[in-house]
Amino acid sequence: MNPARTSRTPLVLLALMLGLAGALRLYLAWKAHVPTIDTAVVGQMALDILAGDRPAFFAGQNYLGALEAYLLAFVFMVVPPGRVTMTFVTIGFALAWIAATYFFFRRRHGAWAALAAASVPAFPGWPSAWYTTAPYGGYPEFYFFGTLLLILALPFLDRRDFVPTGRHALALAIVAGMAVWTNLQVAPYLAAAGIAGLWTLCRQPRPLSRWLPYGLVPLAVAAVFLPQLQHDPAQVQLPIFSRLSLAAVANSGREFLDYDLPRSLLWTFSPAFIHILAALLWATAVAGGLVLAFRGRRNGSADPATALLVLAMVAVFALTYFPHPLSGHVPRYFNAPLALLLGWSLALWVNAHLAWIRRAGLAAALLLAIYNGTGTLNAAREKETDQSQTTGRFVAAIEAARAGGWDALLDTGSEVEGYEGARLTFLSLGQPVFASAFSDRFLGHQLAWEFSGHAGYLVRRGHLPFVEGSLAAMNVPAGEARTTARYALIDTPEVPRVQERSRTPESVDGWPGPAATHPRFDRSASTTWPDAPDLSPRTLTLQFPEPVRFTGLRATAPTPGELPYRYTVRVRRPDGTWVAVQ
Predict the structure, then answer these.
(1) Which residues pair with 456 in a beta bridge?
(2) Using an 8 Å Cβ cutoff, are 57 and 65 in contact?
């Protein structure tokens, strides 16, 4: 009886781990999640799917598929849409990723080593915890499908001769196609599985006829990737092709070590020495794992199959990531390779020959799980106030809009790229619709506003004096505004249409080149913003060759806070004196 009981213990512990990991993420969603720019897009896509829409890709970012939105639509058929229920699909795939990690390592390293490896994605650092809770379009989905690809690639590297089968080829093709459609960032997983398959093909190419069904795999990948490429090639371009140089690679590496890696593995709660111990524990786990892998390779105790797949995945990721223009700003890109590398390291410890090493590996996995679980709980409690305030101001705006009888409102002056329209529309369930003045992700919202029977503007309350002043300058009554602590809502004014044309000044005093190349007037996407203060002055002297009618200023800036919201216009007379005209 004892052996049977022992064999069931890891599965019982895996079920317990999945329950704790799911509960931790639900707690994080309940305390901290409010629809963000991107998560609201997923929720709104799900509602649109229920209304009859059939998107293929994530709205505005075609390197992501619409799988999460379709599954979320099914969830919304059972439970009401909301800021917590919209995380159910994401959390479900997070648990599937944990289970897949367990089964990937179990085959070659045993159940206890697999449990230690699975504890890494179960109780991760902040970026991984958040992106396996909030629905950003397909992150835990591609972690899951990527790990499935590695599981399906393991038979290629069996110690006995591999026997190609049509069933195995079909499974690889389906998973590869789903993975690429879900998120193109799955490429390192796909490459690792492909390397394993090509390695086996080169070792035992005959009979070639048995390998023909594996041609379905590249066909499935191409069938998904080509529409993504055709939709918007810029969305599927690797960072390495944008600015490859040794200096860029070095800078990207420094940003990784200075910010991305600490942010991915460490927390900030008190006392500080705990984080130093956690860093030492992670470093020891990885270094010891590499030593165990090398020594095991020499004496035959380590498994080369998982080592090849893990290291190939990490290597391909590094080759395709560095240099990345967002290094030091977006640590979520490291969630998958770090989880795989750290999980493999712990699995090697727990699978070692010496008992004290095995115990140390299990203890390290337990301590790190407690450390990360504590960090997640603290983060959830710390973010509760911000979540409550953000949700409160959105609800206040929705209630004011409904009280005012508006069918649709145009959100203007947003500090977050204008995507708050999707956040408000999702939370209001489309009653009313909030369109965005800056985003074309949901054209239907703009059309709803254009053809609404009662349309209005949603502006920041602090901007209301500028709106009223602009309308007064055109002799247009502003009408009564409904205000909340954050927003002001007004009827869409009847503004006479006047054909205006923007003009670039002939020159800018103190700027050596053409005015069109000055950072304030260069509208190209590749503008590089100068760090020198003297190149971005607060006072600009613009020269026009002839009198112009001034109705407003259009300028660009690296951040919204640097836009000239307030400005004074003065005209220089022929005698050199200046007179204020506004």
Answers:
(1) 409, 491
(2) yes
Question: Which amino acid, one-letter code, is at 532?
Answer: A
DSSP sequence for 380-437: HHHHHHHHHHHHHHHHHHHHHHHHHT-SEEEE-S-SSTTTHHHHHHHHHTTSSEEEES
Residues 6 or more apart whose CB falls under 8 angstroms from that of 440 comprise 60, 446
How would you label 371-397 residue by residue, b for 16+ Cβ within 10 Å and e otherwise? bbbebbeebbeebeeebeebeeebeeb
Helix (H) or strand (E) holding 58: strand 57-58
In this structure, what is the dihedral angle of CA atoms 424, 428, 429, 430, given to the nearest 10 degrees?
-70
Return d(Cα 250, Cα 567) in angstroms, integer.
41
**With contact defined as beta carbons under 8 Å apart, do 467 and 493 qualify?**
no
489 token code pair:
């809502």
What does each of the 582 residues of the chain score in pLDDT, given as a tens digit? Answer: 334 445 789 999 999 999 999 999 999 999 999 998 889 999 999 999 999 999 999 887 888 899 999 999 999 999 999 999 999 999 999 999 999 999 999 988 999 999 999 999 999 999 999 999 999 999 999 999 999 999 999 999 887 788 889 999 999 999 999 999 999 999 999 999 999 999 999 888 878 888 999 999 999 999 998 888 777 665 556 655 556 677 778 888 888 899 999 999 999 888 888 999 999 999 999 999 999 988 766 555 567 889 999 999 999 999 888 877 777 788 899 999 999 999 999 999 999 888 999 999 999 999 999 999 999 999 999 999 999 998 999 999 999 999 999 999 988 866 555 567 888 899 999 899 988 876 667 778 888 888 888 888 888 888 888 888 878 877 788 778 899 998 999 988 876 666 556 667 777 777 787 877 777 666 554 444 444 444 444 566 666 666 666 656 666 665 555 555 556 667 777 777 777 665
Angstrom distance (rounded) from CA 275 to CA 262:
10
Q: How far apart are CA 388 and CA 390, in angstroms?
A: 6
Please check whether residue 258 is in contact with residue 328, taking contact to mean a CB–CB distance below 8 angstroms. Answer: yes
Written as one string, the DSSP assignment of 487-502 is: EEEEEPP-PPP-----
* Contact of 344 with 309, CB cutoff 8 Å: no
237's enclosing H/E stretch is: none
User: Which residues lie below 8 Å from residue 120, measured CB to CB, with a gap of 6+?
Assistant: 101, 339, 342, 343, 346, 365, 368
CA 236, 238, 240: angle at the middle one, nearest 5? 165
* Nearest-angstrom CA–CA distance, 192 and 148: 12
Q: Which two three-digit tokens encode residue 371?
A: 């450390």
**Is residue 351 a contact partner of residue 110, using CB atoms and an 8 Å limit?**
yes
3-state secondary structure of 31: helix
Q: How far apart are CA 225 and CA 232, in angstroms?
A: 11
pTM, two decimals, is 0.82
**Burial class of residue 304 in the structure, from the number of CB atoms within 10 Å of its CB (0-12 exposed, 13-18 middle, 19+ buried):** middle
Helical pair 2-32 and 355-404, crossing angle rounded to 10 deg: 30
